[in-house]
Amino acid sequence: MEQKRRGKVIFRSGSLALKIIVAVLILFSMAALAALRWVHTGIQARTGELRDEAAALEQQSRDLEEKIEDLGSVKSVEDIARSELGLADPNTLILDLQPQS
């Protein structure tokens, strides 16, 4: 039986099993909420990492697009030939001033 006093519910009689079941359900609910909070925090952290990674990849993509556009210019071809292949214009004299080991 339950009695109401000034807006409060008071359980006067009830089986011990019912009280144990209610307590177990409350504890289970608290554990489930804690687990969901932990999962939510992990998802938020991973989302932040992925957003940072996406921003870095977008920047890298823009840089590569600029490089692709520049590759078609004569100056770019000359720069690559000079820096990566060690070539020079036929009218240019190359002096290597580094000591040989």
Please characterize this protein's 3D structure.
The chain has 101 residues and is mainly alpha-helical. 65% of the residues lie in helices and 8% in strands. The chain has 2 helices and 2 strands. Strands 1-2 form a two-stranded antiparallel ribbon. Strand 1 and strand 2 form a beta hairpin. The longest helix has 56 residues. It is rod-shaped and about 105 Å long. The mean pLDDT is 84.
Work out the strand percent: 5-15%
Tell how many strands the DSSP assignment holds.
2
Uncertain spans: none
State the shape.
rod-shaped
- Summarize the helix and strand pattern as letters: EEHH
The assigned structural class equals mainly alpha
Mean model confidence by pLDDT: 84
* Span of the ends, CA to CA: 99 Å
Q: What is the tally of helical segments?
A: 2
Helix content: 55-70%
Rg from C-alpha positions?
36 Å
Taking strands numbered 1, 2, ... along the chain, how are they ordered across the largest sheet?
A: 1-2
- Main sheet makeup: 2 strands, antiparallel
Keywords:
101 residues, mainly alpha, 65% helix, rod-shaped
Short description:
With 101 residues, the protein is mainly alpha-helical. It has helices at residues 16-71, 74-83; strands at residues 2-5, 8-11.
